[in-house]
Design a protein that fits this description.
This protein is mostly beta strands. The chain is built from four helices and 13 strands. A hairpin with a 3-residue loop joins strand 7 and strand 8.
């Protein structure tokens, strides 16, 4: 299972959108150098208020560009980095990966998928109604989320636009993604 990286983004401040870059540097155990979410402990502001001593399972946010195409049909004009993701991909169904999947990014970087991004109210402040567009109901009635996946950095390295992304599934039984 393989795809392509079409954008890389980071922001040193806790702003909603992230600026596109030519290259980002992933740092093992920490996240993305120069990004506000870099650290071993949780950096997301709401989660810091809840418990600042929890491990940072949200070091890297990945989203599939196919979502932007789907949302464009619903009237939402989005672009890579717009909803806070660090890595925008094409050709790999990120939401169907199991927890623990290793994603090989570019030549050296490896991240481990920890779970789903749970969209927050800031999404609606950015584009009214977008939160609802990022949620859906599974056939069993449970809530589904389309706003990307979160990961931790296992091996550092530079990641660029045009790099490949390859999924290495964990041993079975696979665990479905849950919000982190």
């Amino acid at each position: 299972m393989q795809g392509e990286i079409i954008a890389v983004s980071r922001d040193g401040e806790h702003r909603f959108s992230k600026e596109n870059q030519a290259v980002i540097e992933l740092v093992a155990g920490l996240g993305i150098r120069g990004d506000a979410h870099l650290g071993t402990l949780v950096q997301h502001r709401v989660r810091v208020r809840e418990n600042p001593n929890r491990p940072n399972l949200r070091q890297v946010h990945l989203i599939h560009s196919e979502l932007f195409e789907e949302l464009a049909a619903a009237g939402y004009d989005l672009y890579p980095g717009a909803i806070g993701e660090n890595i925008t991909t094409r050709g790999l169904n990120l939401l169907q990966l199991p927890t623990g999947t290793k994603l090989h990014l570019g030549r050296d970087a490896v991240v481990e998928v920890t779970g789903l991004r749970n969209p927050c109210r800031q999404v609606d402040a950015f584009r009214p109604g977008l939160m609802q567009a990022l949620l859906f109901k599974h056939p069993d009635g449970s809530l589904g989320r389309k706003s990307g996946i979160m990961a931790i950095v296992l091996a550092g390295g530079e990641v660029r636009v045009g790099d490949s992304i390859r999924a290495e599934l964990p041993e079975e039984p696979h665990q479905p993604l849950k919000p982190v």
